[in-house]
Specification:
Elements lengths: L4 H10 L19 H8 L2 E3 L5 E6 L26 E6 L1 E10 H6 L2 E6 L4 E6 L11 H22 L24 E2 L2 E2 L9 E3 L1 H6 L15 H13 L9 E5 L1 H13 L22 E2 L2 E5 L1 H5 L5 E6 L5 E6 L5 E3 L9 E14 L6 E4 L2
Parallel strand pairs: 1-14, 9-17, 10-12
Antiparallel strand pairs: 2-3, 4-16, 5-6, 7-8, 10-13, 11-12, 13-17, 14-16, 15-16
């Protein structure tokens, strides 16, 4: 099978005879993925055997009321109701790459096959280090890993409509209009306790939240005042496992910095707190929780947005099926093609046990 133009270019770029920084390829397009990193750090797991992950959720009240009585007054009893079952379907994901053995030979790598067990092992040819710039196989594996991470990060930020067979992300749980539809099969319309907080144009139009915030420095800062008031509502239903993380686009953070500078956040040693006078402000905190810049929000045209996500065990979490997190595969090659395959599969689901400790905010 002849090599394509792109494959030939990869070989040329990775095997230059005259070069600097042998073995290192300077990657230009890898952005930070703080939301994916945070979800992964707090991820749990679930066993196989069922097609969905299910939890019991309820308002916390069963419909009874405390009444007074005296003497032999007749009293009543009630059977508490209101518990519902939220179900979240787990999804399977795949990404895979292929390389020809001709490419690998050009990079000084030989593939040793054992037909009896259908295995393929790499062997570095003698003297290869004298002629190659970088290990093409390692580089392509790194690219595969980055493409996997970028794809999963994109899914986490989405609503599940781009691929019905893939994971539904935070936009399927933290809605611009919290009263819309259902989540996990539980109606948001009928159950006000099954809603996130929101300050968006959609929430304002539906009466399910506040309007987007028009940031202004006057009067103590409109955004600062909103967050101060909103913090009380976010904390109303905290429990021992609540753990909020803040992720914002660049415009949201810039608006917050502007209001902070204009309303008395001054320093004699520089904004960064160092010994030298430094004009750069550090990332803002709210209640001790860092508001992290999320580049993916900018990429998705949401630079004016901030997500507050309760990633505690009773909030919103990523769950991986036991043994199915970034599972590596190396399929046998077809008998009539001298190629190498590498694959990654992941079975995962984003679930919510509580929504009212999370929020989405937009600035105008």
């Amino acid at each position: 099978m002849p090599l394509s133009v792109d494959e030939l270019a990869d070989i040329s770029n990775s095997t230059l005879e005259v070069y600097l920084d042998r073995g290192r390829v300077f990657k230009q397009n890898i952005e930070n993925k703080p939301m994916l990193k945070a979800f992964d750090a707090a991820a749990g797991k679930f066993p196989g055997g069922k097609e969905a992950v299910s939890f019991a959720v309820a308002s916390g009240q069963g419909g009874g009321s405390l009444v007074g009585y005296t003497g032999d007054d007749q009293v009543s009893y009630y059977n508490p109701t209101g518990t519902k079952r939220a179900r979240f379907l787990w999804k399977e994901h795949h990404i895979g790459m292929t390389m020809t053995m001709s490419q690998l030979k050009t990079d000084g790598i030989d593939i040793v096959e054992d037909g009896s067990v259908a295995s393929q092992e790499e062997r570095r040819m003698s003297g290869r280090e004298m002629q190659v710039l970088a290990n093409m196989l390692d580089e392509n594996n790194e690219k595969l890993g980055e493409d996997y991470a970028r794809g999963l990060d994109s899914l986490i930020h989405g609503d599940g409509t781009s691929d019905s067979k893939a994971l539904a992300g935070i936009k399927s749980l933290i809605l611009d209009d919290p009263s819309l539809g259902s989540t996990g099969g539980v109606s948001r319309t009928a159950n006000t306790w099954w809603r996130n907080r929101a300050a968006t144009t959609a929430a304002n139009a539906a009466g399910s939240g506040s309007n987007q915030i028009t940031s202004a420095t006057a009067g103590g800062g409109a955004l600062l005042k909103f967050l101060q008031k909103e913090s009380l509502q976010l904390s109303r239903y905290d429990d021992g496992s609540t753990k909020r993380r803040w992720f914002a686009g660049s415009d949201f953070i810039d608006a917050l910095h502007t209001e902070m500078r204009a309303n008395g956040y001054y320093t004699q040693t520089g904004w960064s707190g160092g010994k030298a006078v430094d004009g750069k402000m550090g990332m803002p905190l709210w209640g001790g929780e860092e508001i992290v810049y999320d580049p993916t929000l900018d990429l998705n045209s949401l630079a004016k947005r901030c997500y507050v996500i309760d990633m505690g065990k009773s909030g919103i979490r990523m769950l991986y099926m036991d043994g199915q997190r970034m599972k590596r595969h190396r399929p046998a090659r077809p008998y009539d093609r001298y190629v190498v395959y590498q694959g990654i599969t992941t079975t995962a689901v984003l679930v919510a046990k509580k929504l009212r400790t999370s929020a989405v905010y937009d600035i105008a």
